[in-house]
Structure formats: structure tokens, C-alpha cells
Amino acid sequence: MILTFLLRGGSRNAFDGDRNSGQFPANISNLCKHVWDEMILGTRKTVTCTGNAVHHAARVDASAVAQIPLKIVKRLIQMRLLDSGRLLDQWWMIAVDGTLRDRGHDTHEGEAKHRYVLTASLVGPFGIWIPLMSEFMDVHDMVRHKEDCELNAFGRLAERLHDAFPRLPICLLMDGLYPVKPVFDRCEAYGWKFIASLPDGRQPTAYDEAVQTMMMCPDLVSRGHRDGEDGPVDQTLRWTHAIPFGQHSFDVLFCGEISPACARLWVWVTNFTLKVEQVYALANHGGRSRQSIECVFNVEKNGGFGLEHTYCANTTASQNYHLMMQVAFILWQLLAKGVLHKATQACRKITNLKLVELLGSSLRTIRIPTEPKCFGQLRFNPSS
Q1: What is the pLDDT of residues 344-367, one digit of tens each?
Q2: Domain of 125?
Q3: Closest CA to 175 of 253, 252, 289
């Protein structure tokens, strides 16, 4: 299942087409430390088909499989590998967003049953995004077509996140759906920080008051620059304090940007106390980082992982396939940002898809030693 996503074929059929080619079966056997019994299995080594993988994926509860990416992240945190990605050198940033994960199959009523997921991803250094948890949202009442709500899913995911990391200093990065009382209450109860987009219309009373009080506080302003894709970007940051959001009150940060290509305005509500020495970190390292989760979804949808593809009809197996996709995405980032980056430094330019192609070719043509040499400790290059 992991190789189905690592090799980015986009479907089970794409993996099955090459699974018994060349040295691939022998290499998979060596990687899995599997002893091939010729008396039972025959002389020709093969790799099991994805149909068998689906059969076994349907037998394992998704809550058990969900522990795999969680344990990977805990190990990376223990190794202090991701420390430099923390906000203000303290807060671990976790972006929360929902997406369509499976366009589904036709039901007896002739309609496609879509499957959705709410994902919590840890924002790491050097552009690394680590999928941490997934909360599945499916159609529960097929008679009334009543779908699960993303905010209800957030409550379940937040509870799981707090149980897994009860003392971790967490800052949630959220979009404009989340500046509402249940989310505020949850963050207050767990001692979490948050930075949430505040679109005009989501909290109209609070938004209007933030604009008015901002104009009344001309001293709360800071101007600077950042590097953008199209050239230097001029930034103007303005903020205001203690804006009422029902029973709560928070600070609101406005970030106006003018680049050679366009001009735009960012607005965030946060329970950080905004200070002039912190606003740039909160805006650029914090608030703007949430947008990158859309790039992650785009890579998983259009980069060969097959997000939104229906890998199987069985609900449990489908959830486990999605969780293994997240595991493969983590492993790929560690490979691409770590050992593969070092191995390809002499190349002028090489894309991730080309690296995937080379990985698949190597598994089919080059025999992996029975006892592969350990490459040593995993470290990322800050200058990359």
C-alpha cells in the first residue's frame, strides 16, 4: 500500500501493472525481510496484488492504522528534527483543513457517495508538511443525505490531538470557517494558541469593529518587506486589541501586501497578544503558512498520490488506504528533503516526479543488498 503511493501511479492498477517486473519482487522481499518458501510459493518470486491488500486493509480497524503517522511524528519530535519550524521558538504549528478524499462510487440510488476528511498537519522547517491526524467525514444518513459537519469533525479531531499531545504547546492555523465559539472554547480549554483567517462576513460585527478600532490606532502599525515569487513584496501590518467575539475577545491582525503582480489583504484573528516585535513572525511564519496546506492537497490530488481517487468501495479499507497515503507522503518528504537532496546536489534541476521515476526504475532493475547499509543520521540542510 505504501509503495502504491510512493511510486505515484495514481491507482491500484498502475501498481499491479509493474509489481512483478524485473528485480521488483526480490527487492520487496528483501525490504520486508521475508524468506521466500519455494516449497509453498513456487520458484518464481511475486508481489501480492492490490486486491489482496484491500482484503487485509478491510480487516484492520482504521483507528489502529491511524497510530502509524502519529508515531512517526512523535519520533521526529523526539529526535528534535523539526524544532526550527516552531513559531516564536515555542509553538508547534498545526494546520487544520478539510478536503474531498474520495469521489466515491455509485450507490443504489444512482448517486455518488463522496467521502471527506479533516486533516491536521504539522508545519515543519524547510517546507516540510507532516500529516498528523485524519478525521473522516462521511454521509451517515443515506435516507436524508445528512452529511457530517466539518466543525463537528474538528471537535473529534481536537479531542484526539489533545489526548495524544496533552502538554505540547500547539498553535492551530485555520481558515475562515473556524472563528466561531465552539473552536474558541476548545482552544481555551486545552491552552492552545490559534491564528485563524477572518473573512469579511464570517463575524461581521467583530470584523467591522476591528476595522474601526484599527483606524483609531495609527500607532499600531509596522512596515517591512519580504521576498515573493514575483519579486519583493511591500508589507504593511496593522493590528488592534480586545475585539469582542461573543463571550471572548481577541486581537486582530491586518496584513496588506503589494507585489509586482498584485495587491492583497490578509486578516487574522488570534489569541496571541500582538506586539510590534512579534507581528511579522505571526503573519509570515504563522498566518501565511496555512495557505501551504492547499499546495499539499494539490500535490496529493495531482502529483500521482491519487487523493480523490476511489481506491476501493469498502469503507474501512478506503480509510486505511488514505492513512497509508499520509504515511507515504511523510516518507517521501523525508527522502526528498534528506538523503535524495544530498544525492542530487550535483544536478542543476530535478523534479520530484523525476525522482519518483528513478526510484521505480531502480526497484525494478537494481538488486538491493540483503543487508542494506545504514545511511546514518537524518539531517536537513538549512541552506537548501
Answers
A1: 888 878 888 899 999 999 999 999
A2: 64-345
A3: 289
